[in-house]
Amino acid sequence: MNEPAAERSTTSRVAAVVYNPIKVDLAAIQAAVRVEESAAGWGETLWFETSEDDPGQGATERALAEGVTMIVVAGGDGTVRAVAEAVRGHDVALALLPSGTGNLLARNLKLTLDDLEHSIHSAFTGEDRRIDLGMIEIRRADSQVDQHSFLVMAGLGLDAKMLAHTDDELKAKIGWLAYVKAIALALRDKNRLRLRYALDGGAVRSIRAHTVIVGNCGSLQGNVLLLPDAAVDDGRLDIVLMRPETFFHWLQIVTKIVWENGVLSRTRLGRSMRTKDVNALNYIKGERFTLKLSRAEKIELDGDEFGEAVAIRTWIEAKGLTVRVPGGSQD
């Protein structure tokens, strides 16, 4: 049981673990945490479970009420996003214990993905790193507006439709390969987004697009680098507009993402060889981005469906989140 805050030593640092019971081996985590908290001189760790009704915000708020100094997130991208949303504005660090099929923030931070003991050791002995936090306001068809955080990407169009077609049971069995079927189904949808957008308060532009993705960082599963210039701590959003009309346009997109982004962009020489944007794939970059759609469209945040939007307003809170990384990794 969690010990009341008033009964704990006021001088000891205390961590909380917010965990998704479906995606983690709780006994293994508890055993590793006991070893590391003791060795690092921390107090007894507190434990908070997520649920279908509470993906992480409520559990995090209860942890914050206990005065913890670090929250270890044990779950998938959705759990990490929910915890980060609740931690916003609090002087508390997040430590990631990657679980699930995506682990996109952990991948972009180049953290160890499949070593439980190493991840927990890094949480208790590592160092703090400040990264950006994406913020978004989503306007619904009934004019309701809700605000959320995101750490990796927000997507409209094919990106969100793909998630809507993804079979959760299949994803649990075969991981990212489940998205292949989902992509095939989404591509059958011939509808295009009709939208107006503005970047950093500039001129409003009207376009048709297949997909719009707003990113805080750029790498996806399978080492796919969708946004080659994105950095998790540069204080800016990276946005890609996909506008394919023909098979040749899709070939252009695949070439840019797989070859130029995935291979050339990873070296200084390769970056100098990159071509200009093609008509089917445009990149823009800024601090604030607004978008209005001609009709309600599906939207996703960090790989989770978030219903439908008729408009969005998104911006970056520079260095708005503290995460724990292994000691010496920032040198």
TrEMBL record:
It holds the Pfam family DAGK_cat. Signal peptide: none annotated. SUPFAM superfamilies: NAD kinase/diacylglycerol kinase-like (SSF111331). Gene3D superfamilies: 2.60.200.40, Probable inorganic polyphosphate/atp-NAD kinase, domain 1. Residues 10-140 form the DAGKc domain. It comes from the Bacteria. Keywords: ATP-binding, Kinase, Lipid biosynthesis, Lipid metabolism, Nucleotide-binding, Phospholipid biosynthesis, Phospholipid metabolism, Transferase. The keyword Lipid biosynthesis applies. The keyword Repressor does not apply. SMART domains: DAGKc. Its cofactor is Mg(2+). One of its GO terms (molecular function) is kinase activity. Belongs to the diacylglycerol/lipid kinase family. PANTHER family: LIPID KINASE YEGS, SPHINGOSINE KINASE. This is Diacylglycerol kinase family protein. It comes from Microbacterium pumilum. The lineage of its organism: Bacteria, Bacillati, Actinomycetota, Actinomycetes, Micrococcales.
